[in-house]
Amino acid sequence: VTAVCDANPALLAERAAAWGAAKSYADYRDLLAAPDVDAVEILLPHHLHREVTLAAFAAGKHVSLQKPPTFTLGELAELDAAARAAGRVFRVFENFLHYPPHVRARQLIAEGAIGDPLSVRIKTAAGRLGDGWAVPWEATAWRMDPATCGGGPTCFDHGYHCFHMGQSFVPEPVETVHAWIHVHELGPNLYYDGPALISWKYAGVPKYGSWEVIASIGMRVRSDYYPSDDRIEIHGSEGVIWVTRCTGKLLDEPALVLYRDGETRSFHDIPADWAESFRAGGIDFVDALREGRAPAQTAAAAAETLRFAIAAHVAACEAREVRLDEIGPETRARLPLAKARE
User: Fold this and answer.
1) I need a surface site. Which of 12, 33, 80, 118 has the fewest CB within 10 A?
2) By C-alpha distance, which of 340, 338, 341, 307 is closest to 324?
3) Considering only CA atoms, which of 323, 331, 333, 326 is closest in space to residue 176?
4) Considering only CA atoms, which of 126, 230, 241, 106 is closest in space to residue 167?
5) pLDDT of 20-67, one tens digit each?
6) Contact present, 339 and 191 (Cβ < 8 Å)
7) CA distance to 53, 62, 89, per residue, from 86 (Å)
8) How many CA atoms lie within 13 Å of 47's alpha carbon, on the beta-carbon side?
9) Structural element, H or E, at residue 303
10) Sequence-distant (≥ 6) Cβ neighbours of residue 256 within 8 angstroms
11) Tens of pLDDT along 170-182?
């Protein structure tokens, strides 16, 4: 880590010391002007992504951008065009892509362990605030404000992970989506979007997926990180794979379980700490730069996940099934706020 940047002086000093950064900056433009910075990781509220990413490419830096990358597909295409014009690498960082149990599940599916994958079912259990690691209120507040988040903290911010997982284990692309998203109005410009139930159909085949958000906000979720957890069931023509955890540890069981031919196989040797996904993702980005290859999630791949996320929100607002190809370059995710106020 060559340098860190943050507008909060106390946080800036803390992170620079913890990560051994030689330099620290309070203004991102000063960091981008530094000649010894080759690439940047942009971890900012979503409404700042476009401005800072464009500035990074103009300064000749490679960029790893946190998800969701932008509010619209048009904005993401603009960033991709800027990267190409600058001849720089552009990655949208999806850390769940690198979570070791998810990686092994994809390998097993590719090896034919469950035959033809037929269904993906994801369940997110949100727990009580205050458990897990300490999250400053300002970091929670901007996620609850649609103007800065682009949607809600669950179905748009965290949801990007789940929509990506819905695409990751079945070869066919997602074609249509339907959604119920319940929104709680907690205060001025503060919304929590859960519970929710989102279902989808894969193109050309009778295959379906679903993602359910349980707003169990009085329940303790054992976690060193965010107080929530995601479980996945991938059902195939000849077997089933369960990924039993991610951010948290709801049950004392192996992180990955395979059922095939009447036998259950548990994988006990896979690293299951959520932090592993960030370490592996960071290494992959650096390796991509060194090897001159595309990173794990390009702008084109990120666009399909963003399209899925936006379509789900349109479906919830308009109470209908929405085709992903309906989502245009300026379409934004919207929360059904009128229902929240009824």
Assistant:
1) 33
2) 307
3) 323
4) 106
5) 999 999 999 999 999 999 999 999 999 999 999 999 999 999 999 999
6) no
7) 12, 9, 9
8) 11
9) helix 299-318
10) 101, 104, 105, 241, 242, 243, 244, 266, 267, 270
11) 999 999 999 999 9
